[in-house]
Amino acid sequence: MSVTSSRSSPVPLPRHRGCPFDPPEEYAGLREEGRATPLAFPDGKAGWLLTRYEDVQALLADERFSADRRRASSPVRSLPIREDDSRRVGSFLGMDPPEHTRYRRLLARWFTVRRIRGLLPDIEEIVTSRLDAMERGGPPADLVAAFARPVPSLVICQLLGVPYEDRADFQRWTFTLFGIDREEAELFAARDALWEYMRELVAAKRRRPDDALLSGLVHGADTAADADAPLTDDELTGVGLLLLVAGHETTANMLGLGTYALLSHPGQAALVRERPELADHAVEELLRYLTIAQFGTIRTAREDVGIAGVRVRAGETVVGSLAAANRDPSHFTGPDDLDVTRDAGQHLAFGHGMHQCLGQHLARMEMRTAFPALLRRFPALRLAVPPDQVPLRDDMLVYGVHRLPVTWDR
Amino acid sequence: MRVRVDRDRCRGAGRCVLAAPEVFDQSEDDGLVVVVDDRPPPALHERARLAARLCPNGVIATVDSATLDEDGRGTG
After folding, report:
1. Closest-approach residue (CA) in chain B for A226
2. Strand partners, A304
3. Which of A86, A174, A315, A386 registers the highest number of CB atoms within 10 A of its CB?
């Protein structure tokens, strides 16, 4: 039976995890059975799921597919998407060229490898001060509240020029926004609150410039004075929001879940603790192994497209599973093993194509600093609860742990 | 080996700079790729090819000298 003829029985996106570190078990079977799986979306529409590395990579590099969320069905939410959404301005992750190109080109210079390397002393200082505070306050501690969440929030606040004192608000709104079972009214309220917050911050930067990124964008100072018009305050608000949300939420979850994974693999944790030269490999491997963007990425065909052995019709949504692709045995040897000595640099955890993560080097720098420093400060770090009592974020767009109770020897 | 980039399609992800910093850099002005050594020595060929493979936008081409004509264009 061909994949196409099985179209009459689309399945919902697998969501149930057997092991906290592995994608849902169904993915392995689907990847074996065929290249494209007919997918049933909560809004009643049908589309496709791709699970093989080569196919997911091809999807994300193919400009016949749109990243515009307004066209797409969500694989985990049934919410209608508002066509005339003025609050979409600036959110370039869900845009296509030429709109996307304009934003990306204004921002790329702030996130180059060299520029991010320049932040290393600041990142080291932030990591050290959080470890000091954690040591003073425990044991025990919730590693998420004490370390995994504050480190990336402090870093992105400093980079953007956002007051860290405001974190309780923007972390709470982001938490709501990333929950998959939220009511529409809740989601829009959180999104509007974030918007108003950032809109005021943009206005404040216009009045009182500083040296940080947001102010730099507001004043267009030393930007690549090309033909692009400067960003409007609404556009700056959308850009600022995307950078703030992406900057604190994703890395926080990698630090929390990554620590949980390392504590559950003591041999791997020992390698990270004792062999500093493995830090880069360890970060790439944790990104691959954990792939916290658990339900995406999502693309919509602009025209009829042949991909992964099927014909996707114009308007249909295709989900490229980064998590499944990163466990594809035809691309990674022993893909279900966590092995911090392997070179996993070709993983798709940051996506692929034009939307590949803008902040990837910042995320890498934070992780390669934070994991070894944490494990060296607390060589006997361990869970303070049985593993099955660690609350998992399988109800969130970005996977991770809600809390990670840990203890250590004083 | 000759290294070429299609700068118009670059989005400044910077994977190439991580893979082969002796060959690629990012511009201070726009964050996009700059080739610092378009004829890298043999010791760097493997990493230049890795950079081409890792580039999320397929911007980088590496052409082995054996297939270059006298103008430096690839014939294969």
Report:
1. B30
2. none
3. A174
Give the residue ranges of DSSP H helices in A92-183. Answer: 99-107, 113-117, 120-137, 143, 150-160, 167-177
Q: Which residues on chain A are in Cβ contact (under 8 Å) with B52?
A: none
Domain B2-66 belongs in CATH node 3.30.70.20: yes
Domain containing residue A135: 4-407
- Tokens representing residue A384 in the block: 């303070």
pLDDT in tens, A45-76: 999 999 999 999 999 999 999 998 887 888 98
Total domains, chain A = 1
Of A101, A224, A354, the CB nearest to B29: A224
Q: Give the dihedral of Cα atoms A198, A201, A203, A209; nearest 10 deg.
A: -140
- Cβ-Cβ contacts under 8 Å between A and B: the total is 71
pLDDT 10s digits, A85-139: 666 778 888 899 999 999 998 999 999 999 999 999 999 999 999 999 999 999 9
pLDDT, tens digit, 9 for 90 and up, residues A250-267: 999 999 999 999 999 999
ipTM of the predicted structure?
Answer: 0.88
What does the alpha-carbon distance between residue A221 and residue A82 come to, in Å, rounded to a whole number? Answer: 35
Q: CB B18: neighbour CB atoms within 10 A?
A: 20
Residues belonging to chain B with any Cβ–Cβ distance to chain A shorter than 8 Å: 11-15, 17-19, 21, 25-32, 53-54, 56-58
List the structure tokens of A204. 């404040």
Q: What is the C-alpha separation between A74 and A171, in angstroms, rounded? A: 23
Band (pLDDT 50/70/90 cuts) for residue A79 is low
> A-chain residues within 8 Å CB-CB of B18?
113, 361
3-state secondary structure of A48: strand
The CATH number assigned to the domain holding A116 equals 1.10.630.10
